[in-house]
Each structure stands twice: as C-alpha cells, then as structure tokens.
Amino acid sequence: MNQIDHGEARKMTMDQSWANVVVGNKLAMKGMNLQYIAPTVQNGEKIAKLEIEDVELETEKSSSAIVLYVIGETPTIGAMDRFLTSVGKFSVKPQIFYHNEGYFVIRFTNLEERDQVLYSGPHTINNKPMIMKVWSDDFNVHDEVLKTIPLWVRFPNLPINCWGMKALSKIGSTLGNPIYADECTTGSVRISYARMLIEMDITKPLPRYVKLQDHKGRLIQQEVTYDWEPKYCTKCLKIGHDCAEIKTVQLQRVVQ
Predict the structure, then answer these.
(1) Is residue 253 included in any domain, yes or no?
(2) How many Cβ atoms sit within 10 Å of the Cβ of residue 178?
(3) Contact predicate 231/241, CB 8 Å
(4) Which of 112, 145, 178 is the last residue of a domain?
(5) What is the CATH number of the domain that holds 220?
(6) Exposed end of the chain (fewer CB within 10 Å): N or C?
C-alpha cells in the first residue's frame, strides 16, 4: 500500500488532485472511481439532476426485491437467511441487506422466486408478525411500513360467481390496493371464503364489511375478516401497540 508521511503531504501543491493520492491504493481499488459532474443551479441552489440512465441499472437490480419488517423485533441476517430457506427454493441465494431503521431489503434472482416468499404468508419470527412489501424506488419506511401494509383478508360466503379476477379486484379495491388472490381462491378449491392480499391503511379502523352491487342491481353487505389485525398507536405513530389500550388496562388494575 502506498503511504504518504506528513512531510510529503506538506509538500503537495494546492492544485494537485487528491485523486492521485489513491492511485495504486489497494483499498481504493475495491471501490469505484467517481468524477466531478457539474450540478444544475436553480434559484442559486445546486441540484444534482438525475436522469433515467443514471439510476436504471441499480433500479433493475432491485426490481425483484421485497422490503421486510418484523414488528417488535430486529432479527439477525442469519435468522432471515434461515427463514428464507424454510419458505422457498431458490436458483441463487437471495441477497439480504439490513437498514439501521430496522427493516431488510431482500433481492431475488427473479419475480417468481420473489413471489413464492411474498405471497406465502402471513409469517412470524419468534412469534412476532412479519410485514413484506414489494420494493419500489420511492419506498419510505415511515410513510409505508408504518402506515400501509399488506393484509390477508377473507370474504366469507362470497358468491362463487364473484370469484373472477375483475370482480375480486373491484371488491378488494373497496379496502385498499388488491395485490393477490391465494391459490385456493384462484382455483375455487375452497369455496367457504375468498382470500386476498390487500395493501391497507392501518392508521384507520379496519372495516368489518364492504358493500357490493351485483349485476342485478342488488346491494349486498359482505362480511370481512382478517388473518391478522395489527395494532397501530395514534399517539406514537407506530405499529405493534396501542397506548390507549395499555392505559385502559393500567386503569383497570388500579381500580381492582
């Protein structure tokens, strides 16, 4: 490794590029070379204006990725690796990345391998519920993971003629953004209830029914149930608990 002592450093002229310092440096060779690209100036402010070609390669790398968050716990990468091994078979081992705000980004080789994990839930780790979402380039953990999450929703006794893709999509859209109907619903294998994965806003009370108008104009009140109902605290703005419920329990104990 090339080293520069203090005496040599003092001899450097001000116009000498610091890029020359890392030439031949083995540690630097493990990274990537960067270059100065003049920023755009708008209203006196410097702005780094990114074009589609600047980000398309990295975006493509994450096009088959999911964001995974475990409520109330931060598993190790080893634990996440064991979880993935238990729920899917992969041509190439998925890449697991941890963010210090408590969530993981997991990259799969293709969409098929991603979907076998994404649509296999709900899952838990150490009895803690797990949230999984498709990665997007505008993902924000505070706006999305903590407010809008995918929930498995059941529609008991839904008429069998409403089990087509378009009808289910319309019904699911009354609750949020419908993503997926499970295998038993898709193949009409289990007709006691239809089951869909729907992205829903959990900062609001979860609906107990939706209203449908059938092709004959009849208005139907359809019951809705959930595989898992997350708690959301409007005081802390966090998922996993409700301060109002905790306070009620504490008051009941005092009264007793």
Answers:
(1) no
(2) 21
(3) yes
(4) 145
(5) 3.30.70
(6) C
